[in-house]
Amino acid sequence: MPDSAFAYQNPTLPVEARVADLLSRMTRQEKIAQCAQLFVILSNRPQIEALIRKQGLGSRILASTHLAGSVREIATEVEDINALQRVAVEETRLGIPLIHGRDVIHGHRTVFPIPLAMAAAWEPGLVEQAYTIAAREAASAGVNWAFAPMLDIARDPRWGRIIEGFGEDPYLASRNTVAAVKGFQGEDLSSPDRILACAKHYIGYGSAEGGRDYNTGEISDHTLRNIYLPPFKAAVEAGLGSVMSAFLDFNGEPASGSHYLLTELLKGELGFSGFIVSDWDSVVELINHRVAEDERAAAQIAFNAGVDMEMVSDSYLQHLDQLLENGEVSEERLEDAVRRILTAKFRLGLFERPYTDPALGEKVQFTPEHQALARRIAGMGMVLLQNKNSLLPLSRDLKHIAVIGPLARQRSALLGAWVLDGLISETQTLLEAIQQACPQAEVPEISDAMNDEMLMAVADSDVVILAVGESNARSGEYNCVASLDLPAGQEALIEAVANLGKPLVLVVLAGRPVNLTRAVRLADAILYAWHPGSLGAKAIADILFGAVYPSGKLPVTFPRGEGQIPLYYNHKSTGRPHMNRTLDLPVEPLYPFGFGLSYTTFSYRDIKVDRSSIKLAESVTVSALVTNTGRHAGEEVVQCYLQDCVASLTRPVRELKGFARVALQPGKSQRVSFTLGPAELSFYDRSGKLVVEPGKFKVWIGGDSQATLEGQFSVTP
Ligand code: GLC
Q1: Fewer CB near the terminus (10 Å): N or C of the chain?
Q2: Is-catalytic flag, 188?
Q3: Which of 279, 421, 524, 542 is catalytic?
Q4: What is the Cα gyration radius of the chain?
Q5: How confident is the model at residue 5 (pLDDT cuts 50, 70, 90)?
């Protein structure tokens, strides 16, 4: 047990002073141990306890398989977490507590929609509330550190991890990133209901070729800085505590072994002062990348590149001492890594509060308030893609409703991938939610398989709600697809049901964009519900029966099929913009980025730009009049897009630079304004500097990325 007189034990001292005092007392072995994160299972617990007693340990990962998010994880018991923590705090010379990390990707026990669906709500304020709840619930379970938010810009829906991020656009991803970091960390990270955030996977992981996880990417520095870097930059500016390095290699370097990416760019240029943890065993995977002969070399490369803590593999524990002895790793580098890690532990208040009250979880998890927010954000993130003849909203007076399809009685598909602590038993099925929403209607329970019983139920119905899509196991880590078609048999089912001529509502539960080209022709209405979390079924029923009006907008482009990939809205003009075609498929997406219908309609007119010309460092305000031209009330996500018409580098045809939700009653109008200044007008130039260049800019305001209401202004030197 450490002497309480040690200065670092004094909570009134500044964190920097506490870190310096503790560092000065540590042996090399104790410093090296802080750079290690291990998982603990029954079979290795004795060795881990012995290691801790001998030299301490940086972190315990609360996971026991590298596919934590793709398979149901063992729950973690607070008593067990406290017990090992007691060894670190009370049975070691300096009493340095462990930091406990866990994949809290979209909620803890209250499961929110997958992050891609939360991005579809275009409501960062709600996202911050969701991550605040996730932090509160996870902290009550002994978690101090979430391996989230995932910031990977994704332009290939074949990649299963597209579900974990905030879509294809840097601006939308950045706004949601800041919300997530603030939600996890709050204003005071030492509060008992706040946890450390971890922006991942730095960097460019979503560029994996072919949409195949872990595959090589090729990203120019120009695209890296202008597309993939902005969310990480926003996270750092929001006070981010940690970053996780990515598995992939690009531009000839594994991300987890790149001094340029980790130290020069992230810690240097962006000024990131937190610590970097490897992703699972990406340190020793440098051997597979064939840039390291063995684990000793892998440890040297990763540590010198800037990976401060090694997740689950133990090359640092095994080799850093010798590398330091031989001068292949410097003492300064070790001090830097340990300083970053200890700073996080002091900021978290772990020295004052190393243990968790085992009774806390039941008091704070899955409360009615948490469920209410999960239901609200799920509904706001659902996207109405089609509504022929205004079939929706349905009347609650319907007598016969057929709720059928392979996902009508699914629970885990509603939760989505990366769910470690959400309970199936607390997750309602779509069938149950519809029965609850329409108690007077006959909503028969029939088998999920397509058979004549199902078709009979359809024949007897007034309306059919057909639930199709993907299970939670078909997306997330290591779950990539070659085709974007719906899973086998589902299109045939949709056709068979459509042929019966009943009003057909398609509810799509999926993690990624799937190819709905045929479904569009067969269904009357299509609601994209994603994997909407614990309260997703209720949120779907809320929308179908009009308790909530749909307002979600797509955070990713929906292709007509994998042959169009890569397909994203912020593409370049090319030298022949009018000769971009394929002979066998249109080049336009099925649904564009930012698209989403509501139960009413909106018009945009009278765009105004307050100044026709501004100086480099000045701002311009653009606005438009939005009117609800339909019969229902509704919320519209008004979007603002910009084009830098002529620049020193090729620039996207348009880029999202602002959005705002407005609620309007039928016939009402509201002027919506956006201010565009250096932050919005700048881009990384050839030398890697953020610059605003003089010249003409176009701006559009509308309801999706194909907005046509156009304004212009110029920037002068
Ligand atoms: C996994 C994932 C990463 C996760 C980590 C711990 O391989 O790539 O996102 O946080 O390992 O489970």
Answers
A1: C
A2: no
A3: 279
A4: 26
A5: confident
